[in-house]
Amino acid sequence: YVSQVMYLIICSVVLTAFLIAVPIIRNFGMIVFKNDWGKVWTSLSTASTVNPSSYFVISHYSPMEAEVYTAVAFGLIVIFIGMIIMLCNTALRNKSIGIAIAAIFVILDWMADITDRAELLWVSPVSWINIARTAYARDVAIPSANYTITVLFSLNILLMIALFGASSRRDVMSISEEA
Question: How remote is the C-alpha of 84 from its chain's centroid?
């Protein structure tokens, strides 16, 4: 199970790096690397037709901060979903329950978006990939960026420990069944 967890982590890193690198490589000739949002994004964020959350991101984060946060959150969320599926498949010996629980987390994100209920953001880790749905300072109505990364990291560690416990229990049960 250690190798499967390592495989999951490596795949998460590779997928995240791929999704960051492909748009950069594809548009390399047109990209200007500056730590500034530029005139277009700044103008669009203040326009009434654009989602006002984009102004929140532009006014509080640099492009590099937003990119790093999104990459780290994405990688941790991929690991989280993978660990949920692995744990349920291992502990419950049922492949459909893991997928169902992972789907519930995705549906929570959708529900938080549709209902615009801030309290759902506290229990919806998939929603945390959107930096505009995190608090910048001490806004207690929604989770902060530091909270989301810390909780995702901690949840992943707890899920790994639970997976190792479930896998060792399953190995012991398999040995006792053979005897």
Answer: 13
Indicate the DSSP class of residue 1. Answer: -
CA–CA gap between residue 99 and residue 149 (Å, rounded): 23
Q: Which residues of the chain have pLDDT under 50?
A: 172-179
Nearest to 149 by CA among 54, 74, 60, 55: 74
pLDDT in tens, 141-156: 778 888 889 999 999 9
In the structure encoding, which two tokens stand for residue 38, read together?
A: 């530029």
- Give the angle 168-174-175 at the CA atoms, nearest 5°: 90
Write out pLDDT tens, residues 12-35.
999 999 998 888 888 888 877 777
Assigned token pair, 129: 């990939």
